[in-house]
Amino acid sequence: MSTTMSNGPADGPGNGPAVSRWEFDAMFERVRTWGRWEPAERGAWNRVGADHVRRAAALVRSGTVVPLGRPWDTTSGPDNRKPALHYMSDLGDVEAPEPSTHKDFVGADYHGKGISHLDALSHVAYRGRLYGGGAARELVGAAGARFGSVAALGPLVTRGVLLDLPAVQGRAWLEPGQAVHAGDVAAAEEALGVEIAEGDAVLLRTGRFRRRRELGPWDADAACAGFHVDAVPLLAERGIALLGGDGDSDVRPSPVEGVHSPVHTLAVAAMGVPLLDNLDVEELAAACAGTDRYDFLLLVSPLNIPGGTGSPVNPVAVL
Amino acid sequence: MSTTMSNGPADGPGNGPAVSRWEFDAMFERVRTWGRWEPAERGAWNRVGADHVRRAAALVRSGTVVPLGRPWDTTSGPDNRKPALHYMSDLGDVEAPEPSTHKDFVGADYHGKGISHLDALSHVAYRGRLYGGGAARELVGAAGARFGSVAALGPLVTRGVLLDLPAVQGRAWLEPGQAVHAGDVAAAEEALGVEIAEGDAVLLRTGRFRRRRELGPWDADAACAGFHVDAVPLLAERGIALLGGDGDSDVRPSPVEGVHSPVHTLAVAAMGVPLLDNLDVEELAAACAGTDRYDFLLLVSPLNIPGGTGSPVNPVAVL
Amino acid sequence: MSTTMSNGPADGPGNGPAVSRWEFDAMFERVRTWGRWEPAERGAWNRVGADHVRRAAALVRSGTVVPLGRPWDTTSGPDNRKPALHYMSDLGDVEAPEPSTHKDFVGADYHGKGISHLDALSHVAYRGRLYGGGAARELVGAAGARFGSVAALGPLVTRGVLLDLPAVQGRAWLEPGQAVHAGDVAAAEEALGVEIAEGDAVLLRTGRFRRRRELGPWDADAACAGFHVDAVPLLAERGIALLGGDGDSDVRPSPVEGVHSPVHTLAVAAMGVPLLDNLDVEELAAACAGTDRYDFLLLVSPLNIPGGTGSPVNPVAVL
Amino acid sequence: MSTTMSNGPADGPGNGPAVSRWEFDAMFERVRTWGRWEPAERGAWNRVGADHVRRAAALVRSGTVVPLGRPWDTTSGPDNRKPALHYMSDLGDVEAPEPSTHKDFVGADYHGKGISHLDALSHVAYRGRLYGGGAARELVGAAGARFGSVAALGPLVTRGVLLDLPAVQGRAWLEPGQAVHAGDVAAAEEALGVEIAEGDAVLLRTGRFRRRRELGPWDADAACAGFHVDAVPLLAERGIALLGGDGDSDVRPSPVEGVHSPVHTLAVAAMGVPLLDNLDVEELAAACAGTDRYDFLLLVSPLNIPGGTGSPVNPVAVL
């Protein structure tokens, strides 16, 4: 893998090639796993059995603990349209001492581009159907999701694999709009010396947060690097349990006609694979590069929200 | 350890013996670790080095994953005075399909008795001073804590030890107001075959949530089982990194004159030990009993909230 | 009107007589005004034209201003299950001085028994239909109400009439569960020397908040004084534009088989009459008694919330 | 008053002339009214007695009711950095029918440029002192303000006067950064045929929301039209009770050295005059122009928030 980096724009073909709705629907059918597992609402999480957990724990070598959650971002901006809330509810002057106590309120409409979060299976419906085929309108209401909630998922402990694309391509980051294809995934596996296996959590680094720190925030709904749908069948074949990274997995603009988030659609609604969005993987990338190992113990522990469509999270990699 | 259980009231001495303010202050001095670590605001979390992490990972045997976070409780009641918020912000009818997406807002003023959460070092001040001696009034303001925030802690990966007191005492639960003393801790270690060591996270089971399920909620501020302060010097001697359980560690009413939360005060403000409150450890207790092992890999990953005094969490035990 | 008061329980027949679903549906048809006004979503508010506003302004005699909004209640309890939120977001230490500024966040899921609020027409549907006949499921979604929102209502300036039932009956308050019937309304008009006219806002005093101050809060969902449905046809005949008071207008328990809030249903869904719930009318009652006049200028100015089903409010009476 | 309008940039001197801190402090002393009224925390609101209320009510001629509150703005942007919250908590599928009910949560950190709101006296401190001279740090804490809260103000019913500067100057709007001086106020009174009197609420129209609708939002913290401090002594002399408009009263950038909001400081902290920020007065301006009368009955009814530093509001003008 190259160690020379350039900040220049991607010289590749951007977010293409374009995919027709017909092709997309065929791909949806191909990767669909409806009916494969019990409980269905845990989806591909069911792939991770006790054996996987034991093997993942055995990956710990150095004992380095790397958090992947972005700071709770209370400032609105082009990539944080619904800023998180954080208010102090006691500054030692509300409840009587001793001791005096400090307390705070936190809140977030966490889906979007600003907050590190997990998408549960109820987050996405395609043609009105959630993963497994149930009608979204019947299964999700003002009280939350009756199928596919984050509480049904619970925590995930498994092997994580980092696909550090900028490292592989000798860049500081992928440019917004640059697609990651099946071939890029395979090339990354080879260059990084890691192979995606059943039950793995795959994390994609596009270098988004390095770029943000150097160049400032941009509208990540309009343009961000991510997977092209042509990479999804490979991930499906490998049997991943979780997908995520520093973007939201989808390259934007979407290459698929009439589908704004096709990787979300395939992963969540067809494959039952939860997603991790907006992780800061810069420190993880440095740690992996430092040990030249791109797999590790990954722990994701969403809040136990009955009916929740996901959760803000702070995933942890242990190397 | 007895397997016969009784639901009868504790026949012991309740929350006593009473402790004078003078005695308490002497105890505070005795267990105080100010100035011992860098960075100071990580407190006893500094005890957990890479070696501890590796040894904790090596505790994984069966690969059983047990979440400890209570369901996000949006219903007010005697033990949930500030109910958590959960609102759906998109039911597939706000953002245009395809796909349609479901989104939600979560919020909580999480300190209190209803929500599983972590107390960071900025949560508690005694005589106006935070852990390390800084003046609370200068260090904590409307923008949050400048010392001892949960973001300074980050995730914890260490060995967890469950002190299942009802199991040891052959009861279904400890009655509200029943104190756990140093002798009870020692007896539990012996009965459960586990020894608390440096860097450990100690979790106390009082059976609170079993009692709640069987008898309904009660005002846990007025009466709950927990540690008497006389147990703290032993825990300090062992060098624990984290303390928690199904209550909030303090027996209530407080046995200490003029101090409503003395174990909070000693643990957080004197020893730099974060606390885990309101964990549901019933499933963990069953898992430990089933394998007759009371130590495990424990993972606590608070949200990365700059200035936060803690975080709602869903800790995970891996057996 | 009597000036001797007793605190004794109502000696009347409580919340009865019982009303069958069939009778209720007939009553619904009788008072229904669907199709009568444009814009339909302002409902009976359309009755209040410029003439009414002028006549209401002319009611001002003493210039006494009486607010009717309860204090924003952040404490959960049997009659405040979803406590309001109030957090300080700046204590002069966030934004740089000079000047220093103090700021705060307020929030509320305001429907219920604790917060003074207005119910817009989208708040209530009967047999799946909003006022005017539209299907609730089509007209109200996660983005709010497309028909009958509080923003469509806007402010109301009209003549207010206080029906001070405890004053009429020589009691300190009506007991929880005591119904106010058509005959009681007519008797109150006569005793108080006031007649309900077209376009009026009718406010019912049951003495709830005097009772609450003297005896403490109780579960007002389970039992509260309010109108029996038999009083509604009289109010409909008079052509009221707004109905409210210190309860939520409905006597509870409901006397109508299978309908938990029959007055809400008739007023909002059949008649297009918005409701004002949980007003503190104690000071208003004293002011009216002091001048022996029970009509006044009433001003209700809900927040301008597009899609909102109502709004927290602080209505004002000017005598 | 001219009816020809130009959209061109102001040809005047922008936000100047510059004012030194020394000059500002002298002005603060000159307009200061500390100690003049009881209760002090109602400040200049005390000027509005029953006589004022009666005279204000007598201003009603046509019976036209004009709301002044902007739509609750949940979209973040350059002039709405802390978007308001609005979530549906029941869509007829949470509480059991009949009837079915729709409910919602509203919330806002309402100070700023996006939400129509009232500033109570506790909102602003200068040199650490609130109106009346009390120390801000002692009087405002996490539980709110113990002096100068919005609950202490209560509702205001008084005569309102609209200063429609763009109409006077024959423009569609004042450009961001254009100051309104004492001479402009006097000229507006003459051109509009209205004189500001004791106890009045003065509303300034700069045309902000017409400009916003035509040109889109801009950063109103960086540049907005408003009063230069040299206009304040005139307003003080007239004895106003309330000041507000479509901006936040202050011209920005501030012309005063080291004081970011000098009109806020003089009005609130020196004179005890609450402020109304971000009102949409376009419809009011049209109504006033249509009747050629620029005074009216004004009603402001803030939520009754104990300890609140202000409130979101929807003020109402009745012509």
TrEMBL record, chains A, B, C, D:
GO terms, biological process: L-tryptophan catabolic process to kynurenine
A Pfam family the protein falls into: Cyclase
Top-rank taxon, per record: Bacteria
Region called Disordered, residue ranges: 1-20
Molecular-function annotations in GO: arylformamidase activity
UniProt biased composition (Low complexity): 7-18
InterPro entries attached to this UniProt entry: KFase/CYL, KFase_sf
Protein name: Cyclase family protein
Lineage of producing organism: Bacteria, Bacillati, Actinomycetota, Actinomycetes, Kitasatosporales
